[in-house]
Design goal:
Blueprint lengths: L17 E3 L8 E4 L1 H10 L7 E5 L4 E11 L2 E11 L6 E7 L5 H11 L4 E5 L13 H18 L7 E2 L5 H8 L4 E5 L17 E6 L7 H9 L3 E3 L8 H15 L4
Parallel strand pairs: 1-3, 6-7, 6-10, 7-8, 9-10, 9-11
Antiparallel strand pairs: 2-5, 3-4, 4-5
Helix pairs in contact: 2-3, 2-6, 4-5
């Protein structure tokens, strides 16, 4: 972290909006242009003197104040730079492909609740199928949702959205995590009864609208995953992951 010069007051940035650039230049002034700049000027109506943050989505954040807001976007005077380390434990969401707009919704909610990696999963009973010609479009929508939700929740790190995976590929990924949890409404063991590590990687697996097949449950268990339930209610596939991430964060990140 770089500190303000002697005698210079560090800006009060509680609640300051966050803007994301693909690259964050190491310069005393930054320009937030394009769609980000138009949003800042036309929607947020930011003016000179207001505190802002500008990040690269990978943990580097510049804190500063607006010098000018105009057609070109925001000019920001940088007061300090910092590197925000990844939160612990690392949280993954293996999300079966929901239908319609529920996929981006699941990504949005999970991002706001701190997920670090999202794996789109082509489960057996998924209604939605990302055929070869739809993969890039589907990934683009999910990644755009993750980026927008990161800005809204003022997260300095945008979660990774990986390429879609088959059940076999998901099981291969789960073999290397520290704790893998499969949400299932018929499980006897509650999520609240699981000992969650404070570090390492914790993965949550959420099935599709039609539920998990017996074969998928067997395969996931063979990969080391534990089958758990959230509570007596049956949540939609688009909200179950977010609920699980919140429950996990209460005992780890939010203490």
């Amino acid at each position: 972290m770089s500190d303000p010069a002697p005698g210079q007051q560090r800006p009060v940035l509680d609640g300051a909006p966050l803007f994301l650039l693909d690259e964050l230049p190491d310069a005393p002034e930054l320009l937030v242009g394009g769609a980000e700049g138009r949003h800042a000027v036309d929607v947020l109506r930011l003016t000179a003197g207001e505190p802002v943050r500008v990040g690269d989505g990978r943990g580097t954040v510049a804190e500063g104040t607006v010098l000018d807001a105009g057609p070109a976007g925001l000019r920001v005077q940088v007061a300090a730079r910092l590197e925000v380390p990844p939160a612990e434990p690392e949280l993954w969401l293996v999300q079966a492909l929901p239908k319609g707009d529920r996929g981006p919704l699941a990504v949005e909610l999970a991002t706001e609740l701190g997920v670090d990696r999202i794996v789109p999963w082509a489960a057996a009973r998924c209604v939605t199928r990302w055929r070869d010609d739809r993969v890039e479009k589907g990934l683009a929508r999910w990644r755009a949702a993750a980026r927008a939700a990161s800005k809204q929740s003022r997260r300095p790190r945008v979660p990774e959205v990986s390429a879609p995976m088959t059940t076999r590929q998901v099981c291969g990924e789960l073999e290397d995590v520290d704790l893998a949890l499969v949400l299932h409404e018929q499980a006897r063991r509650p999520l609240s009864g699981i000992d969650v590590p404070d570090s390492g990687t914790v993965a949550v697996v959420v099935g599709p609208e039609g539920g998990l097949t017996d074969g998928e449950v067997v395969a996931l268990r063979a990969a080391g995953a534990q089958v758990v339930r959230l509570g007596p209610e049956v949540l939609r596939t688009s909200t179950a992951g977010a609920a699980a991430l919140a429950a996990l964060s209460v005992t780890t990140r939010w203490r």
